Amino acid sequence: MKALYPGSFDPLTFGHLDLIKRGANLFDEVVVAVLTNPAKAPTFDLDTRITQITKAIEGLKGVSVISFEGLTVDCARANNTDLILRGLRAMSDFEYELQIAHTNRSLDTQIESVFLVTEAHHSFLSSSVVKEVARFGGETSHMVPEGVALDLRRLFN
Asked: Which CATH number belongs to the domain containing residue 77 in this structure?
């Protein structure tokens, strides 16, 4: 089975990386799909986010990184994936992710959504929290891979 793990990954956190690694253990292939959303101004440009993820997944078998724009189901179809992998940290994530899963299912009944619950020690992590901590000079090395922490320090210091 081949899974698509979509997101903005702005930036990649240890929570994201945990899901990628666990997905790689569950599925034959995991395609990490980095969203380009023209309506949002990301902290890191697309190439930087792809580089951050590529460095963080070095050595993981069956994991690749692509970019996409538009609907997740269209990306899943274009990459011949069987399912969409998503992570859950809290109940609030579940409500949002359930709505997205139902929407995706209404657009393509052949593509399933699968949810993994994040490890408890990563449950507080979000890209927004990481950026906020970095913006005020806080330490992020326990939240993000080393390369991402360096990029955050360069950006906010």
From this structure: 3.40.50.620
Query: What range does the domain containing 68 cover?
Result: 2-120
* Segments in the chain below pLDDT 70: none
Which residues does the annotation mark as catalytic?
16, 40, 89, 127
Cβ burial 42-71 (10 Å sphere, 16+ → b, else e): bbbebebbbbbbeebbeebeebebeebeee
Flag whether 6 is in a domain: yes
- pTM to 2 decimals? 0.95
**Is there a domain that residue 86 lies in?**
yes
| Tokens, residue 152 | 């955050």
Q: Residue 43 has what DSSP assignment? A: S
Q: Which of 78, 88, 142, 140 is nearest to 113 (CA)?
A: 88
Number of domains in the chain: 1
Strands (E), 2-78: 2-7, 29-35, 63-68
